Amino acid sequence: MPELPEIETIRRALSPKIRDRRLTGAIVRHPTLRWPIPENMNDLVQGQTIHAVRRRSKYLLLDLDEGTLLVHLGMSGQLRLIRQDEPVGKHDHIDLLLDNGQALRLNDSRRFGAVLWAPLGTDHIRLQGLGPEPLSGAFTEAVLKKALHSKSSPIKTTIMDASVVVGVGNIYANEALFQSRIHPRRPANSLNDEELMRLVVAIREVLLAGIRHGGSTLKDFVHPDGSSGNFVSFMKVYGRAGAPCTVCGNPLHQARLGGRATVWCETCQH
DNA sequence: CTAAGGACCTGTCGGC
DNA sequence: TGCCGACAGGTCCTTA
Question: For A40-80, how does the pLDDT look when each residue is reduced to its tens digit (9 = 90+)?
Fold first, then answer.
């Protein structure tokens, strides 16, 4: 489900509501997510204050007194801020209990998500080796050029590689390539400087548009308060195979690239 | 080393 | 209505 804009949307909604709150414990109902939730999660978080809610790549990071809690939503994860006495539903795997009677509840049907712990002063292994944040000054055409120069795989699979740039999932990869008029099958190291520049700008713009519209609600993305985003109505190619290109009117093509649905305009993208 | 493919897991949808 | 395969927004790991 969630790509960078969805996680960022959740972070912004959650931060003012849980920052400076104290955690009173955790209820783990189903510890076997992508990686096991640490068994002592309740003891681990008990009594610690949430000092900041950050994001790195698609991880939501809760900075506590003694370390950082990492939350990843995988494909189908939902994080809801609810009352602790709210009835427990199917796939409600963990509650982080707050000192005001609320809980941060993770629901994840496919269990590709994760809840991990990094003690203060350590960098969790899952956060090591990540590429630049696309919305930061660290993501430039020079940096991208360097990352791509030895890669002959298709540009689409390459920009979805978190060691090149983080946060670009399947929807936004399709949209960014359409906006920059670059064909998804182009070998990554065949892009010239002007195309690299267009791609950097396009990645930034589609992600910012996603954030501006509250993320994309395709199936199961919901905000922590249960409301949904509406970026989906702004998508130009994803989910529109066979429909007319918004620029030239020719039908959009679809194929699988690296196992993922890829949609593009054969006329506009080269 | 790179690139491609399978694996993880559940839910939903379309076809028969 | 039921069954079956394909597919779903993410990553990691193995294989070639």
Answer: 999 999 999 999 999 999 999 999 999 999 999 999 999 99
User: Which pair of tokens denotes residue A44?
Assistant: 């681990």
Half-sphere exposure at residue A104, Cβ-oriented, CA atoms within 13 angstroms: 28
Tell me the C-alpha distance between A270 and A261, whole Å. 18
> Would residue A5 show up in a list of annotated catalytic residues for this protein?
no
Cβ < 7 Å from nucleic strand B: A 32, 34, 76, 90-91, 109-112, 150-154, 157, 258-259
Q: Indicate if A2 belongs to the active site.
A: yes
As a rounded value in angstroms, the CA-to-C1' distance for A193 and B9 is: 41
Alpha helices (runs of H) in A20-75, residue ranges in sequence order: 41-45
Q: CA angle, corner A63, sides to A57 and A68, nearest 5?
A: 70
A157-167: per-residue pLDDT in tens? Answer: 999 999 999 99
Centre a 10 Å sphere on the Cβ of residue A68 and count the other Cβ atoms it contains.
22
Instruction: Look up residue A81 and give its two tokens.
Output: 């801020």
What's the CA gap between A240 and A251, in Å, rounded?
9
pTM of the model: 0.95
How far from chain centre, in Å, is Cα A222?
A: 13
Answer yes or no: is A170 CB < 7 A from strand C: yes
Under a CB-based contact definition with an 8 Å cutoff, are residues A42 and A95 in contact? Answer: no
- What angle is formed at CA A223 by the lines to CA A76 and CA A203, rounded to 5 degrees? 75
